Amino acid sequence: MSKAGIAISALVVLIGAGTAGAWYTGTRLEGVLQQSIEQGNQQLANQLPGTDVALELVAFQRGLFSSQARYRLLLRAARDDQPAIDLFINDRIEHGPMPLSRLRSFKWLPVMAVSHAQLEPTAELSELFAASGGQPPVTLVSSIGYGQGISGELRVAPLSWAGAEVEGAFSGLSALYRTDTAGERFVVSGRVDSLELEAPGRIGLVGIEFTLDRRQDASGLYLGSGRVELDQLAVQLDGQPALVMSDVLQTDHTRLDADGITAELNYQVGSLSYDGKPLGSMNMSWSLSRLDPEATALLTGLYNSLALGSEADDPEALGEQFKGALLQLLQRQPRLALNNFAIRTANGESRFSLDMELGNPGSLEQPAELLARQLIGSLEANLVLSKPMMMDVFRYQALFQPQSDAAALEQEAALMVEMAGGMAEMMQLGRVEGDNILSSLHYADGMIELNGQRIPVEDFVGLLVGLQQAQ
Q1: How far is CA 137 from CA 76, 305, 363, in A?
Q2: What pLDDT, on a 0 to 100 scale, did the predictor assign at position 427?
Q3: d(Cα 312, Cα 291) in Å, to the nearest integer?
Q4: Which of 126, 132, 212, 242 has CB atoms 3.0–4.6 Å from 157's, for a disulfide?
Q5: Using CA atoms, how far apart are residues 56 and 264, in angstroms rounded to an integer?
Q6: Burial of residue 22, with CB atoms counted within 10 A of its CB: 0-12 exposed, 13-18 middle, 19 or more buried
Q7: Whole-structure pTM value
Q8: Is the dihedral of CA 256, 35, 17, 143 positive or negative?
């Protein structure tokens, strides 16, 4: 056989194999979709207990090389006097193993299918489609592998709207993701270039990037890491100069250790300015540890449901469920720590830290005073208050009130800072060392140690009450 004949024969074999593969994929596809929808609905029920959100396959038309599916997403209202919302999604599904769209993108690895899903226009979504200029506001392109892995891209179209109260412009969103049909892990990364809102004031966001990497553990919680970066957030109200936050960063990391779940959260504002003049920066880091996985999953689900406005069918039973989960959480004596809260200005930095270990009261049906003592196993707090930083904060009054007398303001700031230090020492709440006002508190076994002096809890409470009355 000639080389040309061999090439033609090979091409015929490949086409035949591809056709057979596409036919086989088409026969399996509807079952795979139904299974994925059932698993997705179960995941929603686990993460949002009590909420009426469900996805269903309402139509499926199988072809040789592609199929057409239609889904219905039902969002029931939180209150009976509000109508439910039906969203419909149209999905064109190319059959594997070699869908044409992947060949055009020079992606040669075989897949089961490629899904092209889009929101359908409805009366409820008319304003959204108008804002997107008639284009599908949300599209989802997904490649489904034979090993149940899913990867793709989520796109939100640029939006622009002008209402009676709010005008806005959204640059759009592009996010890449990876997951699986069971939803046990998902990785998402994306970027938004800008978002602007015009109302009585103006809010503008520039450059939002995010990355999430979560994996589900046996309790149903999604643990892993997350990162959100914001280049700039500007807020301008009533024609006043803009308050601008720049280089905003949030990170989180959760993991399962031998003694429970550990979570770390960090927040950072690189700079804060008003009318173009720098004010300062901020760092804050939290950590939680020894969290019971099952109790945390239940409390998280209850919180998510309440945050979405869901109403419990039996509030009393819900309350008992919440109490039971809270007591289960407290059995491990979880730890909550504000590791560092720092505010910096041009001339100083103030810091605060708090480390608290919760106790297990055994029952929540106790007098408030006794319950509070049992809930707090130990506590340690430290404060470093910079007098130069306080001076800077008092000087900021000149930015917000340009008509104020700068010399008088400087004298008032110096007086207020010295009074703060004197009051702290007189009330035994702190001591002055150089340019700092220092205060430390330690609590354990019903005894408080304030700045090195041990005092009973009752005396400390009386001290706080006296301070409040003096104000």
Answers
A1: 21, 26, 51
A2: 79
A3: 26
A4: 132
A5: 37
A6: buried
A7: 0.82
A8: negative
Q: Which tokens is 308 given?
A: 């979405």
What pLDDT score was predicted for residue 243? Answer: 93
CA 102 to chain CA mean position, Å: 33
User: Residue written as tokens 């309350």?
Assistant: 319
The whole-number pLDDT of residue 467 equals 53
Residue 4, pLDDT score: 37
HSE of 77, CA atoms in CB hemisphere, 13 A:
7
pLDDT tens track for 114-128: 889 898 888 888 888
Rounded Cα distance, 460 and 464, in Å: 6
| Higher local confidence (pLDDT), 81 or 70 | 70
Burial 401-440 (b: 16+ CB within 10 A, else e): eeeeeeeebeeebeeebeeebeebeeeebbebeebbbebb
Q: Closest by alpha carbon to 359, among 320, 389, 331?
A: 331
pLDDT of residue 463: 58
What distance in Å separates the CA atoms of residue 100 and residue 190, rounded to the nearest whole number?
26
Q: Look at residue 272 and tell me whether its pLDDT is greater than 90.
A: yes
Give Cα 234 to chain centroid, integer Å.
Answer: 20
The whole-number pLDDT of residue 106 equals 67
pLDDT in tens, 419-446: 888 888 887 888 999 999 999 999 887 7
